[in-house]
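Supplementary Note 2. Why include the ligand at all?

Several targets in our set were suspected to adopt different conformations when bound, so apo predictions alone were not considered sufficient. For every target with a known small-molecule partner we therefore ran a joint prediction. The input for ME8 is given below.
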Amino acid sequence: MSPIYLTTPIYYVNDKPHIGHAYTSLATDVLARWHRLAGREVYFLTGTDEHGQKVEKAAQDAGEEPQAFTDRVSQAFRDLTHTMGFSNDGFIRTTEKRHYDACQALWKRLQERGQIYLGAYEGWYAVRDEAFYGPDELTERDGVKYAPSGAPVEWVREPSYFFKLSEWADKLLEYYEINPDFIAPASRRNEVISFIKSGLSDLSISRTSFRWGVPVPGDDAHVMYVWLDALTNYITAMGYPDEKAELWKFWPADVHFVGKDILRFHAIYWPAFLMAAELPPPKRVFAHGWWTNEGQKISKSLGNVIDPLALVEEFGLDPVRYFLLREVPFGQDGDFARGALVNRLNGELADVLGNLANRTLSLIQRNCEGKLPALSAPIEAEGALLTPLATITETVGKLLEVQQYHLALEEIFALVRGANGYITVQAPWALKKTDPVRMAAVLRHLHTALRAYATVLQPFMPGSMAALLDQLGVPEESRSLAALATPLPEGHALPAPSPLFRKVENAG
Ligand code: ME8
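The joint prediction is reproduced in token form.
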């Protein structure tokens, strides 16, 4: 099985992390954890994007030197990985020496292949997006011109190196054609294709009006365009330019997770740079949608930025992780509403999953001396409970392979709901006196089902599913997907159960 390489965007350190950053990294984390459970070798990378005019300006506004400023803000992103329970294997900062080396090596390689020339850039630039825009993309209000993202643009005129992007239009279209899954969701593919078909200009890839960037090799008057610098992080971390490095086997990336705002950079510029450097392009770019807060755009000026740390403190980590991936189909825009989170926590995690676990495990504790009952042959009543378990890893795996997290959770919770129906109908609590053998059989079937649910839910809710697997008596080494095929021995002692999820009041 080939190794899997998954990445998040590297986040700008102009401000502290918010829910949007946590969201992209969470999606990446869940897939990374899933592949590890499936026995794959995985590298999960995240990091911070520390150069460019935007970050330089934020440092100036804070009255700090750029390096000291980025050290401080980057730390907040590293802290976020702990708060959110991310299992990233690496964290890259673009101010690291290894990254300067990689950027300069890539530049030289492009230069050697005749892909870079010196000219002068004249046109519109949005510092907030760190992006160039054509005049036809802009709108004007009160004498100020704006990019489609809403960022104000300014007129820039300076000497600049250019990358021959215009030469790559056909090759890019061909790459999308041959790799229909390269851009996801599919609806975004057309957007990219029509952008290319409307004509690609060469891309300005250096700036001379500020210094906070990677110097262009051989011409210190220029620093590299921050997006060329930033995109290169994905190969820096794999050891580039040393293609014999241990981690190089992970390249090309399996999925670059990004928000829809930065799809153009990942689906057009990045594969073009790589093809021009004769390096393999990534296999897939998934551009997810945009979160709003109770219907409003999230922005610092509106004062409605959602702090992931505060959410985790209030609701607990796993309910937040579950909510973010369950509430909104991955790929679509979504609205953050506190009430919706509370409903998912109370109505699904506590009442459906927590309740099933608690009812089953308390009965085993009370009626079976806390010992796992023996397996017994299923009867017809168990069909709906047990049959789907045979394919649960395959079903969930297929949905995760295409990043349909919400559907995977929906499938699993439909089964958990079914299991609640089963326990209610079988009423094992009533069987103790009338048919203890049947009671034991029912409880064991429920244990089998719970183990399967907990196993496949681990990537989504690692902490609470570890607690559930502990309560189910599943040893650490038996928590992989493959281990599900091996039943636990009967008589195995189970610890006393305790509630998995804490309900919260739906107010505030
Ligand atoms: O663009 N909803 O960094 P950035 C959902 N440094 N996701 C959101 C979001 C929201 N409201 N707000 C932010 C950059 N995001 C570059 C990337 S990569 C080589 C360089 C997420 O700090 C989403 O993933 O502006 C978006 O693409 C990313 O944060 C932008 O982060």
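The chain has a mean pLDDT of 96. The first helix runs from residue 19 to 37. Comparable summaries for the other entries are listed in the accompanying table.
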